[in-house]
Fold these 2 entries.
Entry 1:
Amino acid sequence: MEYRHLKEKSHYEDLYDRFTVEEGRRLEKIWNEPEVIGTKKNMYVTCNVDTRHSGLVNFYMYFWKGDRNRNKSKTIEKWMQEDRDLDAHYDRVNIKRRCKNCSKDMKLTDKFLHVTYEKGKRNYVECFFWCKGCDYGMRITEFGDEKVFTPRRCPECSTKVKCTVTENKKNTTYQDSCPKCTWVSSKPLVIKNYRLKEKIDRNFEQDRARFCLNHEEGMEYLASLRRIDELKNVVEGIKSDPKNQEGTPEYIVEHLERPTVAKLQKKLAKALQKVGFTTLKFDDADEIRGDVVVKFRVQDSNESRSASFSKREFKKTVEEALLYTNWRILPTSLSYKMGVLKGKLSGTDSTPELLELVKKRGLENKPVPESLKRPSMVNGRGEKIFF
Ligand SMILES: [Zn+2]
Ligand SMILES: [Zn+2]
């Protein structure tokens, strides 16, 4: 009467892999089914997986296989614990009974644990007893449900009947007969023998190798998940940095143009030319408290402009040209004499100063000109990635 649920670990490993193979085959079948992409003259037009999404299938299956493997040992441990619990339940219930007829101790002939997966129902142990003295039988469950079986007697002479059990491939037959007279029961009990036919799965090992990762592959998968996590953190870090959030002063400072003195001169000369200021000249640049300061002079070729109008026009033009740069005109330095304007320009690389500058110029929350935008990352193929 050996009755154990817990089996060798290899049994559960095989079972888990069988489920994996079945599920893998099912998924592959779904992916490989041609997709109806439209109808043409009542005919279905389909396309197959190769042209549709083979890359996506591989991607999906990679994570599916990895996750199946990742959950394997946890699931197996859970299954084994469930079976250990069933065995403990079986061992915990010990029922003894005296015969209802003659009060002698009955012999335990069978003990089962009924396992149910129905919600709200409990597993229970069921025992069968037999009285050697008077042939009475009894069935009892751990909930206390009892049923007594009295010995069957011959309807002709009341002798205790004899039961002969015969078994063939299909059935087991319980035939009652009288050992004393010729009576034989006309209704023998026939029970069909159910034998679970084990299907031979010829492709199992081959598919197991395709769908079930081995230890090394499982470890490699976990390592790749960690790498994905790390990459995610890097991307999150880049995204959450105010430098990368459009509209913040930090973002704008990051995108300001920082021309050299030579480039600055060209840029300003071009802008000033358009509004009648010519021959822009720069002196040698000086460094003052970390900033670069350069003296300039320029002529106003428009003779009709007054000194104050000329100064105002010049200042406006320069400020517009320098709006998205790290340069500014030092306001008190500007002078005008006989059509010649003189002053100083200052450029800085100091982030706090530039943040100040951005705020003063009212550039916060304004979109940066497209020409100044730079990609967050450039990938291995040289493609620009904007977050
Ligand atoms: Zn008895
Ligand atoms: Zn008889």
Entry 2:
Amino acid sequence: MELYKEHQLKIYNSLSKKKEVFTPIVEGNVGMYVCGPTVYSNVHLGNVRTFMSFDLVFRYLKHLGFKVRYVRNITDAGHLENDADEGEDRIAKKARLEQIEPMEVVQRYTVDFHTILQQFNNIPPSIEPTATGHIVEQIEIIKEIIEKGLAYEVNGSVYFDVLKYNETEHYGILSGRNIEDSVHNTRVLDGQSEKKNPQDFALWKKADERHIMRWPSPWSDGFPGWHLECSAMSTKYLGKQFDIHGGGMDLKFPHHECEIAQSKTTNGVYPVNYWMHANMLTLNGQKMAKSTGNNILPDEIFSGDNTILNKPFTAGVVRFFMLQANYRSILDFSSTALEASEKGHAKLMEAISFLPSLIGGNESSFDVQAWKQKCYDAMNDDFNSPILIAQLFDAVKQVNLLKEGRATISTSDLEIFTQTINSFVFDVLGLPNEAANNHSDKLGGVVELLIKLRKEARDNKDWALSDQIRNELVELGIQLKDGKEGTSFTVS
Ligand SMILES: [Zn+2]
């Protein structure tokens, strides 16, 4: 029997602002859509957290035995510099600045996105459609919205008529905004806007002469508005109504509000049953921003080449750190917090490495079934990974007692205990199995030894030997870096 039949999963629905029992539209099947990245720059660590949150959801749904179709798009056109439907296309701008083709920008940062997500052990989605691959579908939706009288054309561009929609529907249903507050512009309008009302948003924009990413349409040579692609692709791959729609908290308004308005108008039904929003990551208590330098790239975390953290951290430790917070809470990224997580992560991995050497007996001195149930209770309560991790630390305590002979476990319980720990740690939390490649620990020990010998050589002014150690390590792909705190190394 599938596990989901034995468990009652509850999901916090951003639409009702309540935890609700999860019942999929088709029993045993889940359709999930998550807004993907706009591929015009290296993936932001905050985005990594968002996608990791939905990776946890994807993994747990699969663990429960659901057949999940997970769709996550790639925005490769149409995302302008600001929410006011003005400014340059982000990808076209990067292409102009770097003097390359927009598709070269798209290719470079799509590859970067996939590489980074894989380093953090995220499972790829079932379908990863692109905006440029669905221009035809988007044009069809615009035609339907115009036909229904909820969009209008001005000078080759088409806008969604938010005020008219709001006469019969509630624009703001998800974000809780009133129509008066729902202005797609933080700046004062200068009267040059083509929109009837500042609340309206673009479905199609006419391209000016220098805009290279353009497609023919009944209205003009142009490009689709950013919000439209998600309505087109979610409907195409998951149907008019589907189970879960996720994204970062910052997408609630205007992006998701616009998706609801577009899909409701086109399909006549509300598109999503459970809306899920992942919270943001701050860095040393401040919002992450490239402009202020309060920002860090994943590669800089792994190499230690940054001014923010005291030492390098592995992707496994960063993943563990992120999952120690609930996906709906703000999480602060700092060296101290990561160091604490690194210790906890090492303890957990150490306990897992002891599991195969434990021996079962006749009786258990602790209730394995009750503990296992608590693990499921945690995840069934809106994917509460920090509570699950607390349960796993209870298991670590038991492993250590068993190892010291201060606790006992029956043979059948030991099997359940081992299997439950492994499946929650590796399948559900998705932590990389570092016990499987502890060669890297041994390699670290060997390099540390060479660093020590090189230091002795330098203290003895034996520059030839010290250079030899350094250069031969470089040939093996290991770089030494001398700093105030001593010598560290990176492996390429
Ligand atoms: Zn979206």
